[in-house]
Amino acid sequence: MSVRPLVIIPDSRLRLVSDPIVRVDAKVRSLVEDMFETMYDAPGIGLAAVQIGVPERVITVDVGQRESDEEDGEARKNPIALINPEIIGESEDLSVYSEGCLSIPEYYADVERPARVRVRYMDLDGETREIDAEGLLATCVQHEIDHLNGVLFIDHISKLKRDRVMKKFTKIAKEKERDGA
């Protein structure tokens, strides 16, 4: 397992539509291990493979880190790897969460999404599974599936706010390039 570098906006790879996984093999399992390692190191609660430069339909999530046990304050790990995830149902009622993204460091905005979703995916054994997600898990899964389709959470906010974010990160990227970082 290894921590991989994150792809940061305005990198155009974040706009790629990821390719489906044909077969779950050792390469895919290794990718998932690296994704969890990278996600926990960041730290984050979700990661799409494209965020580490691999445009394949794989996401990892673990909202257990956020939902710590109230009694002892211990974070519970609940890692979930979803291969070729697709939303097959969503609620009409919506919820709003302040979202952030490892590929857009230190920027957060309120995003409205369906409050509950049903997702079909393959697990690490190549078995087709379905999961019903609500609350933070539903938001996280939708956010990561968006990445697989080249969509960022800032695409769900106003054009004015999105343009400001892109301008800021484009400037930072140019400064890093100029400084040879």
TrEMBL record:
Q: Which domain of life is it from?
A: Bacteria
Per the entry, the cofactor note is: Binds 1 Fe(2+) ion.
Keywords attached to this Swiss-Prot or TrEMBL record, sorted alphabetically, are: Hydrolase, Iron, Metal-binding, Protein biosynthesis
EC class of the enzyme, as a word = hydrolase
* Coiled-coil annotated residue ranges, if any: none
Pfam family example for this protein?
Answer: Pep_deformylase
Q: Which cofactor does it need?
A: Fe(2+)
Query: In the UniProt entry, which residues are flagged as the active site?
Result: E144
> What family is this protein classified in?
Belongs to the polypeptide deformylase family.
Q: Which gene encodes it?
A: def
- Name of the protein in question: Peptide deformylase
EC code(s) of this entry = 3.5.1.88
**Protein purpose:** Removes the formyl group from the N-terminal Met of newly synthesized proteins. Requires at least a dipeptide for an efficient rate of reaction. N-terminal L-methionine is a prerequisite for activity but the enzyme has broad specificity at other positions.
State the species of origin: Ancylobacter pratisalsi
* Record-listed Fe cation binding positions: C101, H143, H147
Could you state one GO biological process linked to this protein?
translation
